[in-house]
Amino acid sequence: MKEFRRIVDQHRHRVYTFAFYSLGSHEEAEDVTQEVLIRLWQNWTKLDRRRLPAWLSRVTRNACVDRARQRRAYSLRVVAGGLGGEMSDGVSVEPSPEAQAETKELREHIRRALTKIEEPYRSIMILREIQEMKYEEIAGALDLPLNTVKSYLHRGRRMLRDQLKETLSYDRA
Amino acid sequence: MTGHDEKTRCEWLRDRIEPYLDGELAAIDTTVFESHLGVCAHCSEELELAKRVLGELRSLPAERCPDTVTSTVFETIGSDQTRPTENPIRRWLTGWRHGQLRPALVGLFVLIVTVSAVLVARHHRSTNRITPEEMAKAEAELRWTLALVGDVGRRTGLTVRDDVLGERVVRPMRRAVFSVLDGGSEPASKNNGG
Lengths: 173, 194
Known about the structure:
The complex is a heterodimer of chains A (173) and B (194). Chain A has helices at residues 2-23, 26-42, 52-70, 74-81, 97-116, 121-130, 135-142, 146-172. With 173 residues, chain A is an all-alpha fold. Chain A has one domain (2-83, 93-172): Winged helix-like DNA-binding domain superfamily/Winged helix DNA-binding domain (Arc Repressor Mutant, subunit A, Orthogonal Bundle). Chain B has helices at 3-14, 17-21, 27-37, 41-58, 67-78, 88-97, 102-127, 132-182, 188-193. Chain B contains nine helices and no strands. Chain B has three domains: 3-58, no CATH class; 96-129; 132-188. Classes of the chains: A mainly alpha (173), B mainly alpha (194). The A-B interface holds A 5, 8-9, 12-17, 20-21, 26, 29-30, 33-34, 37-38, 41-42, 44-46, 48-50, 87-91, 103, 106-107, 110-111, 114, 125, 129-131, 150, 153-154, 157-158, 160-161, 164-165 and B 14, 17-19, 22, 24, 49-50, 52-54, 56-66, 68-70, 72-74, 76-77, 80, 82-84, 86, 90-91, 94, 98.
């Protein structure tokens, strides 16, 4: 049990971050994190500790996909419901209040646009660009060939940019 | 360059923005990519947007999982009776399957083999001492065997010379030599005696 608590403390923020950016909601990220940690406990004796990060990434991603399926219009609700003010600030350079506000707004748009990207592009972007996992680790976690991960990442980023352009032009119209 | 070519070049560039940003574009493609940027404001804007979006995506902060989540998990599993108890045999087998016990077991195996080899060698040395009489007898047997092998070899050589070489090589050559020397046949005694 002590070892389990240590592992939970080590990995819970990672699981939570993935779920938050995948689903776009703190409440649902909490539910998914609880679900994943309980599954971790249920499989505790069977798990290979060396493959734990990959196992957690795979189970978290599957839990997010299942949850997204359960609520079909979840991304629309997230955009309509508004989550402004929930994002924490990670800005290190603050040139001016206007630029800072613009950056914050862009990040919020990016975060929302991310929830609209299809799987597995969204998961790959979160794992690679936000959680800084290696290509090999992502390939292992999602059971995809290495080159497929790379090409999906590039395709996903382009989809995100197109989604963002659409959102921004819609906002300005 | 025509408008169609320009459009094609723009599409080509947009397909390569992401590899370009990751530094994965081939050198020759990078040259073409950058030269097009110099003449196409639209593609330059697209690249700037891609850079900005990627930069912001990468700087999205890691979220902190609230403590209430883990406390709920610990409460749930504290009352959970469904989880299988840890069977020591199953634990051992799991450890073996996952390779955690393998180095120790391989080490134990090597140790057993080494100790066994040392014990067998020691036993062999103590039980197989050769006496001088046995050594003399072995030397005599070896000499006799070598002499027999030598005699058989010598007899075989003579038989081959007389039966094979004599008929096919020695006699024809001798006939040829005599016919050259005195134009006659070789001596009758030699013909009959061979």
